[in-house]
């Protein structure tokens, strides 16, 4: 080996460490394209939900089922977590590893809070209303859409945890900076999807 | 560390090399081999279908097995033969055409291939485990939900795994083209095949997710008693049809656009002339792709969507004829005034023009929805899409194989055999499918296990079957040609066709790092420019330096294997809960592989400057 | 219309040798010889689009042939470097604009025809039949006449008949090529279309959506009769009562077996118990002996019928009758067949209309 990998660990970090290497740039673009595909994925689920939301087969309807209080709390948790991940990325660009970790940690905790609320919500529907994904076409479509989103949140939390554990002792470098950045892109995406779920499923379910 | 092939190696190390490779050129070989295997399988299924239909009320195979045959023929040819071979060609040529050393995510590239292969194997293993899927390649919800046994479950899981691989491949190619073009290779200097790869990848990215969701919904309905398509609980089977065709129509363009690009390269190379109307060609491709997303419901004219929807989709469908027409005329005008060399690759391209034009013609005719009330789900449609997919995609694949075979394998395919297989295939193809237009209008619906006596359908079906065998013979000759060329074939030089694009500027086959120095591109058809205006060599676009390369890895194979096992678990968990072991075990194994991959620091390695310098000096001699 | 047909024939004859040999296909099955309104409208568009597209094809082929003749490199030709033409704006504009015009020529009549055929505002004034698709047979419920039958659909000539389609199980598609284009038979919604036949006769109907192993055997017939015959047929059907039939002893025994062996649980044999909207589990057998085909596609002989009664699976794989009744001896099957062949409510039959 005539060449070591010192270029990944520069003395002075560049302004945008997540895009400083070709690999970083690839990850950045690749993640954006992946999220483009994810958008269509969720669009398909939204379409299915909209087509089936009134097919309750005699079971509870959206209006009877949903309470906006809990959902509002969930929205706040997830929106805030999106903001905290922005802070984390801000500190990454300032090469402040500790503060980045702090804000990423908070992001993760907020995500866990969101997930806990969602699990409570689902359990509530099942025990109180006997409303499961087998009850009606509406039930199937509701759990598919919201559950798919919840699955994404869970995946995000696991991803973040591995990242945080893995890099705890290494500090920031050009090899792992793109990884933190791709995670934060993903996390924003789930947040945006949730805004749509909040509007289309819950608000329109209550009002429309 | 170096994976350069040096001297004689044992079969074990050869195998290990391919199992762990992340080199786009070797992954291309794998895709071609895998896709070729499934092409043969799908071809045999086609012959079984045609034998069954050789005479009225034949009993060569049972009704149930016939439905398995048509389902597997369609599914195999589209997902496991057509697309993988195309992705193989993209892998082989695209990075070279833009002057890159590999794709953006070499590891992911290998993973894409293994997911495709394991998905394809899973799907086909259904034959050995109680019956293949039998609800048609579209697997419409109501019949697919009722289909007994596990056939449809194999369909769902197999396509889900293979589809995930394809999606990753698409993302990979887009990122590659966006970030890794050589110095001077602007978008509007990219060869048409690269453009087509780019646009096709975008189609894959946006078309596959609806399929993923649709398969999920069907899987949940079949395995976990959800109610998406269960009418008694308010479900709706039309949703399945919509989601399927939102995927399915762009899929047709995924199968044909890469070949539009390839034919553009071939026509231009063998006419020794620049592509006529390059800009129009690029935008026509984009327009076709865009419109391709807008017309899915023309597969559903008879569903009863109402006159408004039918009219909109009818007009939209006919509109696609405009950009496609632009392409056909631009190809003809590329040859006009050129010097047209007719060899095997060019023969397939020339055969494509009339064949595909007929496919396009009938496509527009099908777009008129009131006429389609008669065509729909008959042999007319079967004829139409075979004219497009065989006359376009398969002709293109053969053209591409003849064209790039020297670049990929360093040998030239035998011309005589190449021409022979073209003419036999061409005759067989038209014999098989032209008559089917009339069979459809004469009252023969598609997917018919038998046609009845005395309905005027005997002769047409007989002719069709004879044609199918001619295509079979031509394919066998082509396979023999491959074997022959591997043993006795003429060694290929770097630029056997007097080419125009970057892939012909490096040796055949290229070194594992492709370019010692990234090339400097001075315009469209860079190699031709250097031949006309320079010394015929592409100038370097960077100083000679150490070259960064990715490490090989066995993890992609293992991840594919994990999902394969999990697939079995999913299929059989409804029968016995022990199968959950396979399900969770397989998933855990794959996720474990993913975690291991994330936890490892894989920085790749560098090829020292000295080695590259030696290679350059060797070339100069 | 006839002129157009003639033109099409010449066109196609030129196009395909095989076509000359086999003609336009079997009469009353082929869509190429329309004998009903819907098929006629479709045919006009088929011809229009074929003519336009053939024109385009010929233009492409002329240029193609010229290119190959003039610019092909022949043996011994020296290698030349032709002029590298970038493109030609005028030419490219021409082959963008002309196709757009051609598309408009095809699109406008298509849209008109679409809305025209979809107009069902006058359905109340015509015969309305509820059609139910089943694996693998068709059931017809004549709404206003209060009669029901299966497999053979009787309609009067030269009048609109509205069919309302729905399926009991999986998707099917209702297609009588010579009379009209097809319409899918969905489980979740009723699809409506009309058929109007120009000539009396027996027309072939097909299922055009994959519905299981016997998809290709799910044939049916449309029997087009005169107005008077139709009225007569309806009356005969309404009055048919198996209780008052004059049966010979063998058939009488057959009738008892029909009830004993649980045939009657799925099959109705007369219209006396007609209830609107209900679909029997198995085909209605009221006019069984008048059927043009057995099981949709077999000659209606007694031999075939006995075989069917004993082993339907061998004739129609995947049908739902198999295993739904106790095993029958040759003798029993023979007697039931004898009985079923007595179910002849009317003189108006498919046979009388078949050429």
TrEMBL record, chain A:
Domain Heme-copper oxidase subunit III family profile: residue ranges: 29-206
* PROSITE patterns reported in the protein's UniProt record: COX3
The listed locations are: Cell membrane
BP terms from Gene Ontology:
aerobic electron transport chain
What are the transmembrane regions?
A: 32-52, 64-88, 100-120, 141-165, 185-205
What's an example GO cellular component term for this entry? plasma membrane
Q: Which Pfam families match?
A: COX3
Which InterPro entries does the record associate with it?
Answer: Cyt_c/ubiquinol_Oxase_su3, Cyt_c_oxidase-like_su3, Cyt_c_oxidase_su3-like_sf, Cyt_c_oxidase_su3_a-hlx, Ubiquinol_oxase_su3_dom
Q: Specify the protein's topology with respect to the membrane.
A: Multi-pass membrane protein
Q: What is its main location?
A: membrane
Family recorded in the similarity comment:
Belongs to the cytochrome c oxidase subunit 3 family.
Full protein name: Cytochrome c oxidase subunit 3
Automatic annotation (TrEMBL), chain B:
Q: What is its EC number?
A: 7.1.1.9
Pathway(s) of this molecule: Energy metabolism; oxidative phosphorylation
Keywords recorded for this protein, A-Z: Cell membrane, Copper, Electron transport, Heme, Iron, Membrane, Metal-binding, Respiratory chain, Translocase, Transmembrane, Transmembrane helix, Transport
Q: Which domain of life is it from?
A: Bacteria
Task: Report the top EC class in one word.
Answer: translocase
Where in the cell?
A: Cell membrane
Q: How does it sit in the membrane?
A: Multi-pass membrane protein
Statement: the UniProt record of this protein carries the keyword Zinc: no
The terms under GO molecular function for this entry are:
cytochrome-c oxidase activity; heme binding; metal ion binding
| Catalysed transformations (reactions) | 4 Fe(II)-[cytochrome c] + O2 + 8 H(+)(in) = 4 Fe(III)-[cytochrome c] + 2 H2O + 4 H(+)(out)
User: What residues form the membrane-spanning segments?
Assistant: 30-49, 69-90, 111-132, 152-180, 192-219, 239-263, 275-296, 308-333, 345-367, 379-401, 422-442, 462-483, 554-572, 578-599
Identification of the protein by name: Cytochrome c oxidase subunit 1
Q: What is the lineage of its organism?
A: Bacteria, Bacillati, Bacillota, Bacilli, Bacillales
UniProtKB/TrEMBL annotation, chain C:
Gene Ontology, cellular component aspect? plasma membrane
Which Gene Ontology molecular-function terms are recorded? copper ion binding; cytochrome-c oxidase activity; heme binding; oxidoreductase activity
Q: Which reaction does it catalyse?
A: 4 Fe(II)-[cytochrome c] + O2 + 8 H(+)(in) = 4 Fe(III)-[cytochrome c] + 2 H2O + 4 H(+)(out)
Q: Please give the cofactor(s) recorded in the UniProt entry for this protein.
A: Cu cation
- PROSITE patterns attached here? COX2, COX2_CUA, COX2_TM, CYTC, PROKAR_LIPOPROTEIN
Stated membrane topology is: Multi-pass membrane protein
Task: Extract the InterPro entries matched here.
Answer: CcO_II, CcO_II-like_C, Copper_CuA, Cupredoxin, CuRO_CcO_Caa3_II, Cyt_c-like_dom, Cyt_c-like_dom_sf, Cyt_c_oxidase_su2
| Entry's localization field | Cell membrane; Membrane
Member of which family?
A: Belongs to the cytochrome c oxidase subunit 2 family.
Q: What is this protein called?
A: Cytochrome c oxidase subunit 2
Q: Which organism is it from?
A: Pseudogracilibacillus auburnensis
Q: What is the lineage of its organism?
A: Bacteria, Bacillati, Bacillota, Bacilli, Bacillales
